[in-house]
Amino acid sequence: MALKQRSVLPGFGLTLGYSLLYLSLIVLIPLAGLLAKTTSLTWVQFWNTVSDPRVVASYKLTFGMSLMAAIINAVFGFLVAWMLVRDQLPGKKLIDAIVDLPFALPTAVSGIALTTLYAPNGWLGRWLEPMGIKTAFSPLGVLIALTFIGLPFVVRTLQPALEELEAESEEAAASLGANRWQTFRYVILPAIMPALLTGFALSFARALGEYGSVVFISGNMPMKTEITTLLIVTKLEQYDTAGATAIAVVMLVASFVILFAINALQWWTSRGYLKATS
Amino acid sequence: MHAPTKRIAAASTQPQRRALREPLWVRVLIRIASLSFLGIFLLLPLVTVFYEALREGFGAYLASFRDAAAWSAIKLTLLAAGISLPLNLVFGLAAAWAIAKFEFWGKNFLITLIDLPFAISPVISGLVFVLLFGAQGWLGPWMSAHDFKVIFAVPGIVLATVFVTFPFVARELIPLMQEQGTEEEQAALSLGANGWQTFWYVTLPNVRWALLYGVILSNARAMGEFGAVAVVSGSIRGKTNTIPLHVEVLYNEYHFVAAFAVASLLALLALVTLVIKTLLERKIQQQMANSTSDFDAEVSNVAVKSPVNAAVPAPHVSLAVWTRGFDFESAVPT
User: What is the mean pLDDT of residues A156-172?
Assistant: First the structure.
């Protein structure tokens, strides 16, 4: 089998060759270096590093808060996407544009802004503090930062799915006697479920690796509010490259598993779509 | 043809129309919930940045920029973005040309590899370069022997920036160029243009808005990157601090007004990015629509599937094209 089909266009060898070279130099070789470094650790060393109580506490916090942030984003992201697609709201374009703010705003800036907002003397913190809700410098602060950075993922994956819904299927459901809730539950929700799950998973994956927006608001207390990426940085600052690498590999595997799940989800739904249309 | 159905729908009974819309209280509730969520989570942090920056007046705000360390941070950020943007731009064009204009084995795997930096935590993106070039890294001994520093120096910051912005241009260009197909390039070549002329006068104008879109997003990320750069920089004041790192230093030293003043530059950049992005999205949609009008799509399908035998398309496809008749408006790119 030929590697490529014959084509009249020039430049295939040059562009593909350059792309592969650049990809290898910038991405593949550095990543291979990370894996090679892991193999230089013995299994016992690796296990002791990644199962240290302080590290395990950071997994619990990072995974737990990322999951909760993704759930919050799935709920409110759905409401925002629904409003942007279906509601005739004045200033909708402006609201639509601002949804991307967490992508555009540097994480360090959102980090210090959220900390100031939720600190005991901040605009929101001064209301929450007397009610006994400690936000900044507590696990709740981590949750707030992770919710902030994950929101656009859910909205942006749901919007096209909601726009593609055909009005006919809703009309059919209604004409067959379904009330609005039944139409939503049995017609709309199943159709947008794959997009909702994809947005949820993307938001979760992004939260796992987040650093900048969290380190300011979390307070970074060992065993309590230390996220895993911060531990990697701490180990590096102590010149413990081997320890940093071991934890990084655990995080890398976790995010690849999620990415694989997203791809499988999309493959599965596109197959279902083909079946339904053929 | 649809008019009678529409009239029937309009005359339909009240309960049926109610079944196609949420009750008023649900619609109001959705509005209130999503607007307050966006207000608290997106708008308030943004307002906070500017409020805190201007808290002690405009004079104090401007005074924050009279600091040499702030200027060196701005210069370093511009340098890192200035090097990484053209590098990733050339790569994005090359990769998109190879992927969109040719069929080859392992193409989808290559696209996945290009997206890889997006899937990796910024901290790990910095770590990989520490492992390569750091004092205990693979190339560390060689580099200290030749007195060349990457980690805790400018080259490391540039490398980390290149890594985190790697996919932006390529991932904007690939889907658009795949959608556009190859027939315009083939036409140019058959009219006697050489490869460069074809690329310069046919391909590039067709993708210019998507290209700009990728560059704008890539620039925002390059100038705002924190985690990856923090790991490789060592935060040497006046030497290896970018704007986000300088914000962190000021904040941790309790210079809050100065920290937010410098941060407000990045927030302004973010706002400008969002505005340009929104404008470009409209342009790209038009360009997409032009290239995927029915007639074009079918012609490009033929061209992609059999680039050499474009003159002899599969019978059922040509039938579909011809029975539709000649629609010059959609065939001629505007």
Answer: 89
All residue ranges of chain B with pLDDT < 50 are 1-16, 294-334
User: Residues of A with CB below 8 A from B116's CB?
Assistant: 27, 31
Q: Which two tokens stand for residue A1?
A: 């089998």
The fold of B68-290 is MetI-like fold (1.10.3720)
Q: Is B134 on the interface with A (CB under 8 A)?
A: yes
CB contact (8 A) between residue A79 and residue B270: no
Q: What is the pLDDT of residue B332?
A: 31
Range list of H helices, chain B:
3-10, 14-18, 24-38, 44-53, 57-63, 68-101, 107-119, 122-133, 140-145, 154-164, 168-180, 183-190, 195-198, 204-224, 227-233, 243-252, 256-291, 294-305, 315-323, 328-331
The domains of chain B are located at 68-290, 293-334
Beta-carbon contacts of B52 under 8 Å, excluding residues fewer than 6 positions away, are: A113, A116, B256, B257, B260
Name every chain B residue with its beta carbon within 8 A of the beta carbon of A183: 19-20
On whether the pTM is more than 0.90, the answer is no
Contact B37 A83 (CB under 8 A): no
Note the pLDDT of residue A8.
75
- Mean of the per-residue pLDDT values of chain A: 89
Residues in chain B: 334
The torsion of the CA quartet B192, B198, B202, B208, rounded to 10 degrees, works out to: -170
* Residues on chain B touching A126 (C-beta within 8 angstroms): none
Contact B19 A178 (CB under 8 A): yes
What contacts A49, CB < 8 A, 6 or more positions away?
A: A41, A55, A242, A243, A246, A247
ipTM of the complex in this document: 0.90
Q: State which amino acid sits at residue B159.
A: L
Encoded tokens for A207: 């939260």
Residue in chain B lying closest to A115 (CA): B45
- Whether B152 and chain A come into contact, CB under 8 Å, resolves to no
Structure-block tokens of residue B332? 């001629």
How far apart are the two ends of chain A, measured CA to CA in Å?
30
Domains assigned to chain A: 59-227 (1.10.3720.10)
SS3 B159: helix
CA-based nearest residue to A81, from A193, A156, A153, A188: A156
